[in-house]
Design brief:
about 575 residues; alpha+beta; seven-stranded mixed sheet; two-stranded antiparallel sheet; 9 strands; about 60% helix
Amino acid sequence: MDKGTQVAPEPSALSSEGAPRAGRGSTIWIRVGAWVVAVSVGAAQAWATRFTMNPDGISYLDIGDAYWRHDWHNAINAYWSPLYSWILGLFINVIKPTPYWEYPLAHLVNFLIYVAALGCFEFFLAAFISQHQVQSKLLADREIGIPSWAWWLTGYSVFASSALLLITLALVTPDMCVMALVFLVSGLLLRTRKKNATRTTFVLLGVVLGVGYLAKAVMFPLAFLFLLTLIVQISGDAKQRREVALALFAFALIAAPFVLVLSVQKGRFTFGDSGRITYEIFLNKVAVFTPTGSALAHPVRIIFTDPIAHEFRQPIDGTYPPWYDPSYWHEGLAPRFDFTSELRILAFGCATNLFIIGSVFQQLNFTVGLFLLYFANPSPWACFKSALKGSPLLLIPAIIAIGAYVCVYTEPRYVAPFVAVLWMIAFAGVHLHHSAGMTRLVSTVVIGIAITTAASLFSRSVRDWRQPPPDYVQAAEAFRNNGVDPGAKIAVISDQPFDRGGAFVARLAGAKIIAQAIEPSRVFGKDRKREDEVLKAFANAGARFALTDSIMAGLEPCWHKVGTGPYSLCALDALTLRTND
């Protein structure tokens, strides 16, 4: 051999200096440790937030009950997707918790979905590492990327941060379901590009896309985007195009029945109205719960005008009908494009995404780590181009999904799975000159990201560990002692119907809100006659009780405290009898 000739070592024999080899066996303890940390922190967060509730959660719980009792009229809903309701309904109606434990059980369900999402992410991450083989490819050119052990550590950090900081287990929503399914889809997409990809892989891809639609309506158009991207990638392979058609067929088998039911119910084609209504609310500034306008097919009925009080006893069921099925109350309205509003919502969406990657409370540690690794390369742009070229199957759908939310309304929990995928793609672009110094830099950055992520998660998950039950839990327990039986119809007087406003109490007590007045300061003003007239309007609408969280309640002598919180209850039957006398 010529003395001046240098032969690069076999890629499979190389590893970052001092780092474990790329084999799965060498990373088992990293993976086990990551699972222990991720599950522990998730359990801590679920416990710390066990009593919290949100408006969407009330609707999903109600719809789950409707499916369980075969009340199809109220179960089929064009705003809320069914999968999460099915899961909640199963647990609630099989275990049958007491009111005290109902919301904690919902958070247990969230935690179990989170663990399932972690498993789905492992499936995706294994496929991602297998496809890219970043270390061995780059080492052949005397460069290094993210070594195998670091990929697992980085990947789990990305997952835990996205799941527990962007989505969280505090909210009773299907976003964790969506995250799990996006990871499954991403892993299956990567596997379709293998030479030994089987027909089963394509069928499973279609099935998972269909289930994704049942988890959230936005996954319906995204399913076609995923499949279209796949078709473009295999444009020259007739056999695989047939396999993609099979995936489309499997998707249709899962999605079509619900699309058909919704379309029949609405008398028009629809795969869900959540996007349309969200656009109306955030861009056209339509009232969320009680929209107005001459075009409305089912306007919420006004039973008192000064202050305004509404009644919505029929035909929608649920704890709080205006939010149980917004598609019914918004029917007749059509989204209107407004350039100024669109600019405002675009700015808000961009700011939200910048907050995700730029806030110390979100994912700034990933941004800083990626910045250090890219700029350690003499040409950071080369890393960026490498990332863009690496995974178009995943990159294009993720960017378009985030862009779609930016155009309508963005919350971190909506974009979390797509942000996680983009982080993985971005780190795949890292390639540096092979040297001991660069190897140490990669290791330091990856370990630093893992430590800062774990520290942030632990601090946020355990700070509310001893949180006492909220006022609405105590009030719901006191309802039974005050004659509020399950199924009782009540009215609420509050600035807003959720949080302390009444719906969280009513759900636990099994009561139904059928009327509301949202200006307590005017109801409980100096004019006692106005308060009396509002309560009579509630009684005439069919309400048996009125509930308020206002400290101003008490002018009408029917009010008395329930629980130790701010709630007061008035028995309208007794008020009506007294008035008649």
